[in-house]
Amino acid sequence: MIEIKTSKLSDGEFNRGVFATQNIKKGEMIHQAPVIAYPNEQHEHIEKTLLEDYAFEYGIHHSAILLGYGMLFNHSYTPNATYDINFDNHTFDFFAYTDITAGEEILINYNGEVDNEDPLWFNKED
Fold first, then answer.
1. What is the DSSP letter of 33?
2. Strand 62-66 with 29-39, pairing
3. In the predicted model, what is the mean pLDDT of residues 25-33?
4. Which of 1, 67, 81, 113 would bridge 34 by S-S if both were Cys, CB 3.0 to 4.6 A apart?
5. CATH T-level topology, domain 2-108
6. Where does the pLDDT of residue 11 fall: very low under 50, low under 70, confident under 90, or very high at 90 and above?
7. 9 falls in which pLDDT band (50, 70, 90)?
8. Residue boundaries of the structural domains of the chain
9. Regarding beta strands 62-66 and 56-57, do their DSSP bridges make them parallel or antiparallel, or are they unpaired?
10. 39 within 8 A of 30, measured Cβ to Cβ
11. What is the pTM of this model?
12. Residue 65: how many CB atoms within 10 A of its CB?
């Protein structure tokens, strides 16, 4: 259903993104990404690494590194996918927010809510 390919949106060193290999209907689950959770107090160590840009909030007291394709979804303020945190299953569950066409890049809003347009860490002015 999904694959990793070169993304035109990502300007980082790796330029990767998640793409649909088939049509995906709105509401359909795209991916379940297992998490490695850690207490927020340990985030200062993650901040010293490349992983800082890939960590997700995981409840009030924890952050998480996502496995599978979870860390490779690129950002958009007009996403075609969204995610829910499944604490019972220890996964981030990604769903189609709109119909997605085969070949289309799957995008999420890094703010967690599809309509949240708050500036992100990589485009804030200092």
1. E
2. antiparallel
3. 98
4. 67
5. Beta-clip-like (2.170.270)
6. low
7. confident
8. 2-108
9. antiparallel
10. no
11. 0.90
12. 18
